[in-house]
Each structure stands twice: as C-alpha cells, then as structure tokens.
Design a protein that fits this description.
Blueprint (H helix, E strand, L loop, with lengths): L2 H11 L3 E6 L3 H11 L3 E6 L6 H10 L5 H10 L4 H8 L14 H13 L2 H11 L5 E4 L5 E7 L4 E3 L1 H7 L3 E8 L10 H9 L2 E4 L4 H9 L2 H9 L3 E5 L3 E3 L8 H12 L6 E5 L16 E4 L4 H6 L3 E5 L2 E4 L2 E4 L1 H20 L1
Helix pairs in contact: 1-14, 2-4, 2-14, 6-7, 9-11
Family: Belongs to the gluconeogenesis factor family.
InterPro entries: CofD, CofD-like_dom_sf, Gluconeogen_factor
GO biological process, one term: regulation of cell shape
Length: 341
C-alpha cells in the first residue's frame, strides 16, 4: 500500500487531530485553513498578553487577556459573518472605558465572571458560537511573561519587554495572582498527548509561542507526545524580539527553552519577498525577511520543508494558510500511518 493509499484509508476512519499552540494574528490564518482541510482542531491560546484592550480589561477586572481567544473563536466559528463582525466590533467612541474595546473581549470577560474561570467561559462561548474544534486557554489563570536580556537585566510584562528593544536571552511565566507554579488544565495535556500533529506558530517567538511552552506541565506534554511537532517559522523578523534572526535561530531558541531537540519538522519560506510593497513606516513590527539556514536547521535535528509560503498584499506579509495547512495535514497523516504500522 502506497503512502497516499494509506492516507486515504486512514482519512476514512477519523480526521487528523491537530493541536496548534500560539497566539497573535498568525494563528487564525492557520486555523481557518486547517478547518477547510477538515482537521480535528484544538487551539491552545496564549494567556499572557497585557497590551491594548486585553491588557486594559485585565487590569480592570483581573481576567485572562481575551484578545487572542476572541480571534481564535471567530476563526473556528460557524456563525454568520454578520454575527462575527458584531463580536469583533471595536468601539471608537470617546467614552473613557469603551473606547478601543472589542465587544468580544467584554463578552469573554463577562462569561469569565459568570463561570468563575476562563476555561469554562471559553467552552460555553464555543458552544454559542458553534465552534468547529476545541479552544483551550493555555492556563486557567492569567500569567505574567518575564524576560532576562543578554545584558543580564530582567523585565516583567509583554509590552514592557518588547518596548525595551533589547536582545532577549530567555523568558518564563509566573502566575499573576499567586506564587503557585503555572499549569495547564488536563484537557490541554490530553489534547497534546492524543494529537497527530502539534503545531507551534506562526507568531511572535518570545511573546506568543514560548509563553505557552514555559508552562511546565504543558512543556512536558509536548516533549512526550508521539505527534509530529511542527514549527511554522515566521516570515519576517520582529522588532524588539527577533532582530536579524534566521530560521535556525528561531528553532534553536525554542529547543533551548525546552531543553532538547523537540522540533521534528520546520516549515520555512523560501520565496523572495517583494519589499517594494512593504512600508516599514506603517508596519514597524517587521524588519527584514527571516534568513534561511538549512544546515543549521538540520543540525537542530529537524526535517525542513521549504516552499513559497507567503501571501503578500497591501504591504503586509502573511503566511499562505492553505499551503501551510496542506503540509501540516500531510505530516499528520504520516504520523497516523506510523502509529498503525
């Protein structure tokens, strides 16, 4: 039986189980595309964001920041586009509290108060929004991101860390409201254990991906899973986080934080980016295309898949979700087949 025949046979028995871990604007792009590929999706979402509307709500009512969760809910929801638009609507009034807040953030905060925790709040809202898949906050408690810079100084808070514009040596997370060790709830760990593919990224390396992996029991689940662990490397470097990083630098940092070579496959863009469409004055979070270092990636013990993974329009650079999702599904089916052999 050929690989394609095996994959087709396996696909009739169940959908591939894909766990995507991250946050930020890149996560919904991949989730939307995976939904089109009929994957059984679990999104594990960062809870350490302290900027914008999420940070303001967190400061007022002490809730896990809802922004990334809101965007993931919309990406996996089956409700009408009009309902999604209402959920995503951001107030532009001059009211001192509502100005800049997204309605969805307020709804998530309200459900958090009603249920007493963010995990149950998100599960309840997932049902209301007819989510195809599962959405799990990485932790049931708000977390604070901490960083040590190369110069030895230490800073707490995601926004404060990136504002320092210093080279980051390492990051870790602490519970915002207690001295107990951060932990993921059992459904998060079970999803990683049972996955065919565990996907990291795309997203900010130090502020969207690593905060999840610095939750000790979540990191341990990733280390022990039999799933294919896939890293979707960023297309562009990010100001204050990954200045001048190559694709290998990204993987090396993740492996260093995990304490070993745990990335099985890396998806990297190999296409040239049309910088004439790029306006750094408007989008200063991006500095330059991430350089390829295939030799370095192989030395990190991971398979490299390279392609034209970019979708560039209006001066912005995004991943082409469909191309990325197809590679993820192929790798997930391969992992499913290996388990059956």
């Amino acid at each position: 039986m050929t690989f394609d025949e095996k994959a087709n046979h396996t696909s009739k028995s169940r959908r591939p189980q894909v766990v995507v871990i991250g946050g930020g604007t890149g996560l919904p792009v991949v989730l939307n595309a995976l939904k089109e590929q009929n994957a059984d999706i679990t999104a594990i979402v960062t809870v350490s964001d302290d900027g914008g509307s999420s940070g303001s709500i967190r400061n007022f009512i002490n809730v896990v920041p809802p922004g990334d969760i809101r965007n993931v809910l919309v990406s996996l929801s089956e409700i009408s586009q009009e309902e999604k638009d209402v959920f995503q609507y951001r107030f532009d009034s001059s009211d001192s509290f509502f100005s800049g807040h997204a309605i969805g953030n307020l709804i998530i905060a309200a459900l958090n108060e009603m249920h007493g925790n963010i995990f149950d709040a998100v599960q309840s809202l997932s049902k209301m929004m007819k989510v195809d898949g599962h959405i799990f906050p990485a932790s049931n408690e708000p977390l604070t991101l901490n960083a040590e810079f190369v110069d030895g100084s230490i800073q707490a808070g995601e926004k404060e860390i990136t504002d320092k514009d210093k080279r980051i040596k390492r990051v870790w997370v602490t519970n915002t409201n207690s001295k107990s060790e951060p932990e993921a709830v059992p459904p998060v760990l079970e999803a990683i254990k049972n996955a065919d593919a565990v996907v990291l990224g795309p997203g900010s390396l130090f502020t969207s991906i690593l905060p999840n992996l610095m939750i000790p029991n979540l990191a341990e689940a990733v280390k022990k899973t039999n799933a294919e662990v896939i890293y979707i490397c960023n297309i562009m470097t990010q100001l204050g986080e990954t200045d001048h990083f190559s694709d290998c630098d990204h993987v090396r940092v993740i492996n260093a934080h995990l304490g070993g070579h745990y990335i099985n496959t890396t998806l990297v863009n190999g296409a040239k980016i049309d910088m004439s469409k790029f306006n750094p004055k408007d989008y200063d979070a991006y500095l330059e295309p991430v350089k390829n270092d295939f030799k370095g990636l192989r030395e990190q013990g991971c398979r490299v898949i390279t392609d034209d993974f970019i979708d560039q329009h209006s001066g912005l650079v995004f991943h082409d979700g469909r191309k990325v999702a197809k590679e993820i599904i192929n790798l997930a089916y391969a992992a499913m087949t290996r388990r059956k052999e």
